[in-house]
Amino acid sequence: MIAVAPSHCEIATKKGMGRLGHELVVVHFSHPHPLELTSLHQQPATTCAGCSRTLSDRAYSCKACGYALHVSCAQMPQRVRHPADASHSLTLLPSGGGSFSCNACGADGSAFFYHCGECDLNLHCSCAALPLSVVHAAHLHPLTLFFFPPYENRGFSCDVCGHPGSYQWVYSCAMCGFDAHVGCATAAEEEAQANHPWHGSEGGGSAPHLALQKMETGVGVRKIDKRKAKRLAKRIAITAGTSLICTIL
Ligand SMILES: [Zn+2]
Ligand SMILES: [Zn+2]
Ligand SMILES: [Zn+2]
Ligand SMILES: [Zn+2]
Ligand SMILES: [Zn+2]
Ligand SMILES: [Zn+2]
């Protein structure tokens, strides 16, 4: 018999970490049960509760509840500072089955969002990660992100799609009066980023453009030691056999 040294992956797994160093079990604020790192074919859901997009890789999931999060969505910071709200930090919230209206793009959302109660500010996570300026093929100059239309009537007409916008964020060239909805100004760029600004790197959770100041992470991994992780994994196996109903779905 030839002794083969265990691969790096095996060593990492024994230490309670998955491939690429992700924790095998995490406690996440959005779900009452521990979430287990699962490969694509083991996942109990097809979409991520954090961003509503299709799961395409490993995810953190609760099999008993059919709840799953992209690894990067599970790592989105729970509190951030954002230039749209100079006075307060924004809190990451699950939509709790309801929906919110996003102040940035004007569309409704039903996944995680960043919120300030005092300012009544709600942002899609992807909108919270919008770059402060973009270059768009339809205009010669860089466009700057304004957190409200820089006009007296708080409205604008989008020079990309031709539709109006009001009381929402806008990318503008102030010099030329060129305006674009945030979605219109970033459509091509989003495609280039696989439709998910938070999924920019395997490390996950970091916005590639806007330096959001992370205040605390949404994952309670640091509170779990290896023995507890084992116990939690066992509990997941047990709860998976029962039909627990989650209130936060
Ligand atoms: Zn996601
Ligand atoms: Zn659950
Ligand atoms: Zn939005
Ligand atoms: Zn605020
Ligand atoms: Zn538009
Ligand atoms: Zn211009």
From TrEMBL:
Q: Which InterPro entries match?
A: C1-like_sf, DC1, PKC_DAG/PE
Which residues does the UniProt record annotate as the domain Phorbol-ester/DAG-type? 32-81
Q: Which UniProt keywords apply?
A: Metal-binding, Repeat, Zinc
Q: Which PROSITE patterns does the entry mention?
A: ZF_DAG_PE_2
Look up the domain of life of the source.
Eukaryota
Q: Which GO terms describe its molecular function?
A: metal ion binding
Q: Name one Pfam family in it.
A: C1_2
Q: Which PANTHER family match?
A: CYSTEINE_HISTIDINE-RICH C1 DOMAIN FAMILY PROTEIN (PTHR46288:SF80), PHORBOL-ESTER/DAG-TYPE DOMAIN-CONTAINING PROTEIN (PTHR46288)
Q: What is this protein called?
A: Phorbol-ester/DAG-type domain-containing protein
The organism of origin for this protein: Ensete ventricosum (Abyssinian banana)
